[in-house]
Specification:
The structure is a single chain. The chain has 603 residues and is of the alpha/beta class. The protein folds into four domains: 123 residues, Alpha-Beta Plaits (2-Layer Sandwich), CATH 3.30.70; 53 residues; 230 residues, 3-Layer(aba) Sandwich (Rossmann fold); 110 residues, Helicase, Ruva Protein, domain 3. It is 43% helix and 17% strand. It contains 24 helices and 18 strands. The strands form two sheets. It has an eleven-stranded mixed beta sheet. Strands 1, 2, 3, 4, 5, 6 and 7 form a seven-stranded antiparallel beta sheet that branches. Strand 8 and strand 9 form a beta hairpin. The longest helix has 24 residues. The radius of gyration is 35 Å and the shape is elongated. The protein starts with a helix and ends with a helix.
Length: 603
């Protein structure tokens, strides 16, 4: 019979060994994150071929300001910064400081007995120790054992040397210094990992006020917890996330200035896709049919304004419902809005209608509504609204003062009569709506922009919800005095209607030539500046108070890059898009041709 020892071995030891063997074949978290190879040298360490060099801050500046590490973090260098803090017991620190004060006081007394002048360094040290001890005893401060490291990345030792020299220059400008962790690069790398273990232990005792100047790491970044991701910071690669309807925003308005080909439409398309994901409606006035593919992809609504299109917008429509504001007169507001539209229609750019012409139009507009059975009585506002042709008939039936009927003829006869003198056949019932005006003549586009923006304003007044209205080539409307006043008024009042107005233009000088253009800019909490031309950079630099470096950045930045100005920050933005977003947003003829070829091959 087998002995008890043999049974124990069979039942205990052998299964345990099998378990250990089985465990060796299991994949653990260490197998996933562990590198394939680590090669440590005197002044750098290579992990899977990627080289690093770790430095420890050894000399701290005596006088610092909040966020003094910002210059190091914002430096265009590939580095990681690691700060280790270990709080110390105040009682033990007070005893140590008291002992230190006794030593310093003894030295002072010996020097005084010997007739020697007191050492400046010793006097400063005594004052510092005394001030810190008093603050600790009152509970105003605490002491932390602090380690501060940064890890540089590079492909070769030469690249690391160049980055280290630039970082040393930055630290020297702040009266700080750092030393490489020679022969201890691997412990230094481990100390810079998110595990929070300090293996180098290059410590320095700092009080709470000193540590507070380093925490949190602040930089020229712009990121909120919930918002639209616009891209990354070109300097420190942090994310640029902005919520236009956030509670910390004055309004959701935005102005975009860029020369042709700078990527402003590309950015706006990316913004539209990501706004839809957040439940924000996005409306676009598109003069060049750049948003058609995007609209089709997201199942949006395309409204085409042309002589042969079935889509029409009647600017004479009254609001469907009256809000709670006392004393509000919807008819008077509509007449005032139509005055602005007719000013764009009947006047030349820069030459608004005169007071007599406006008086004639005011009387004719009220008569037009009266003939349609609509008066100031709100119970009559449910009647069918008149159209532009009805106003033309009123003017023609009169004495045609100032030739207003003659000037209005082109908008009611021929193909234009189907564009501007028909009843409304479209509604904003989709989250993404594009108003396309490519088939309209250049001189008619400001009129169409006004009609569309006015139609959107009536809709947001009736059914408020978060919406963004993008007006591309807005300068063509701003150069008309009445159009500029209308946009300026919309920019001022959009916040109350849950609307964000985005004006996009490449003609900065024309946009800012009027007081209304500056009003639109002043009422936009976000300004986006993309690549500028040397002929306009002076105006942009003066208007936005740019630094010399920002000026040069705008002159030389690549497509899709620019300055994102919000909440007092000037962030160098680089737009980043996924493959699907890029396919929908690109306007490159070569890429569009390749997409068409791939589509035909797929069929």
């Amino acid at each position: 019979m087998p002995s008890l020892r043999s049974l124990w071995r069979q039942q205990g030891t052998q299964p345990a060994a099998a378990d250990r063997t089985f465990g060796l074949g299991m994949r653990t978290g260490a197998d996933i994150v562990a590198p394939a190879a680590i090669e440590e040298a005197r002044a750098e360490v290579a992990i899977d071929g990627a080289m690093s060099r770790v430095f420890a801050i050894t000399d701290y500046p005596r006088h610092v300001t909040p966020n003094w590490l910002g210059r190091l973090i914002d430096a265009d260098e590939p580095l990681d910064v690691s700060l280790h803090l270990e709080p110390l017991e105040s009682s033990s620190v007070v005893r140590s400081l008291t002992h230190r004060m006794v030593e310093l006081q003894s030295s002072r007394m010996l020097e005084a007995r010997g007739g020697r002048i007191a050492s400046i360094e010793r006097e400063v040290a005594y004052e510092d120790v005394e001030r810190l001890r008093d603050a600790l005893e009152r509970g105003d401060e605490r002491v932390f054992s602090t380690s501060l490291y940064f890890r540089l990345h590079g492909r070769t030792p030469g690249v690391l040397d160049e980055s280290a020299a630039r970082v040393a220059g930055i630290l020297g400008g702040m009266m700080a210094g750092a030393r490489p962790a020679l022969y201890e690069m691997l412990p230094g790398v481990l100390g810079c990992l998110p595990a929070g273990q300090d293996y180098l232990r290059r410590r320095r005792n700092l009080d709470t006020s000193s540590v507070a100047t380093m925490l949190p790491f602040g930089s020229s970044h712009l990121a909120v917890g919930d918002g639209i991701l616009y891209g990354e910071n070109a300097h420190n690669h942090s994310l640029v996330v902005h919520n236009p309807f956030g509670s910390d925003q004055e309004n959701a308005n935005k102005t975009v200035f860029a020369k042709s080909g700078a990527g402003k439409s590309y950015l706006c398309k990316i913004e539209a896709l990501r706004a839809l994901l957040l439940g924000i409606d996005y409306l676009v006035i598109d003069p060049e049919d750049e948003y058609g593919r995007l609209c089709e992809a997201v199942g949006g609504q395309m409204v085409r304004l042309s002589g042969t299109s079935p889509h029409h917008i009647n600017p004479f429509d009254l609001p469907a419902a009256v809000d709670d504001a006392e004393g509000r007169d919807p008819l008077a507001e509509r007449v005032l809005a139509l005055q602005g539209l007719l000013g764009v229609m009947l006047s030349d750019p820069g030459q608004p209608l005169g007071q007599r012409e406006r008086g004639v139009l005011d009387e004719a507009l009220y008569e037009t509504y009266r003939r349609a059975g609509i008066t100031r009585d709100a119970t009559m506002h449910g009647n069918a609204a008149p159209v532009l042709r009805d106003l033309f008939n009123v003017l023609r039936d009169g004495d045609n003062a100032h030739g207003l009927a003659d000037r209005l003829t082109r908008y009611v006869d021929g193909s234009l009569g189907h564009v501007f003198s028909e009843r409304t056949t479209t509604s904003l019932d989709q989250p993404f709506v594009v108003f396309q005006m490519r088939d309209l003549e250049e001189e008619l586009r400001p009129v169409a922009m006004y009609v569309i923006a006015d139609h959107v304003w009536r809709e947001v007044t009736r059914r408020p919800r978060p919406r963004m209205l993008l007006i591309d080539e807005a300068w063509s409307l701003v150069r008309h005095a009445d159009g500029a006043r209308f946009l300026a008024d919309m920019a001022r009042r959009a916040r109350k209607r849950w609307l964000g107005l985005t004006t996009v233009t490449q003609d900065v000088e024309d946009f800012l030539a009027s007081a209304e253009g500056h009003t639109i800019l002043a009422n936009s909490s976000v300004q986006l500046l993309m690549r500028q031309d040397s002929s306009t950079i002076g105006v942009v630099e003066e208007t936005f108070g740019l630094s010399r470096g920002e000026r040069e950045f705008l002159l030389g930045c690549r497509r899709g890059e620019g300055l994102f100005l919000a909440r007092g920050n000037h962030v160098a933005l680089r737009v980043e898009a996924s493959e699907l977003e890029h396919a929908l947003a690109t306007t490159s003829p070569a890429e569009l041709a390749r997409q068409r070829e791939e589509g035909r091959d797929a069929r």
